[in-house]
Structures are given as structure tokens and as C-alpha cells.
């Protein structure tokens, strides 16, 4: 593989990861919130829809950041562009 082919493979993997994580973000932000009104049962004394909006989404956002960082570090090492510590 030439340097250009390595760069394209790295960028393609980066775009694929970003697309998947943005799709997860979209589902959590908009799809779950749209259907939250139909989730009308109490969860620890609060409506479940409130819990999903206030707590569940934040947990998913933090997980998205963690998955992206870990996967990109691994991808950087595979393609030889990792930063030295």
C-alpha cells in the first residue's frame, strides 16, 4: 500500500466510525425524545420520559465520546499516526 492508500483507508475508517456514532446520537437525541411521551410510567418517582431526557441521554453521550476516543487511538496505532506520550 502506498501512503495515499493508507491515508484513504484511515480516513474511510474514521468517517465510518463518525457516521455510526452520529446515528446513535441522532436516535438518542431525537427519536427517543419523540417517543418519550408514550413512555408514561413512573421510574423511581419520576416519569420515565423525564429520566430518559435528563439522565439516559447524558450517559449515552459520554459513552459515545469514550468509544470514539478509544477507537481512534486504536486506529491511529494501526495506521502509524499515533502521538507519542
TrEMBL record:
InterPro entries: Na_symporter_ssu. The chain crosses the membrane at residues 15-36, 48-69. The keyword Transmembrane helix applies. It comes from the Bacteria. Residues 7-81 form the Sodium symporter small subunit domain. The keyword Transmembrane applies. Keywords: Membrane, Transmembrane, Transmembrane helix. This is DUF4212 domain-containing protein. The lineage of its organism: Bacteria, Pseudomonadati, Pseudomonadota, Betaproteobacteria, Burkholderiales.
Amino acid at each position: 500500500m502506498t501512503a495515499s492508500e493508507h491515508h484513504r483507508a484511515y480516513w474511510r475508517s474514521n468517517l465510518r466510525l463518525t457516521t455510526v456514532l452520529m446515528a446513535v446520537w441522532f436516535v438518542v437525541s431525537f427519536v427517543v425524545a419523540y417517543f418519550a411521551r408514550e413512555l408514561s410510567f413512573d421510574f423511581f418517582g419520576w416519569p420515565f420520559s423525564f429520566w430518559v431526557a435528563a439522565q439516559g441521554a447524558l450517559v449515552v453521550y459520554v459513552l459515545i465520546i469514550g468509544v470514539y476516543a478509544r477507537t481512534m487511538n486504536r486506529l491511529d496505532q494501526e495506521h502509524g499516526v499515533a502521538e507519542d506520550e
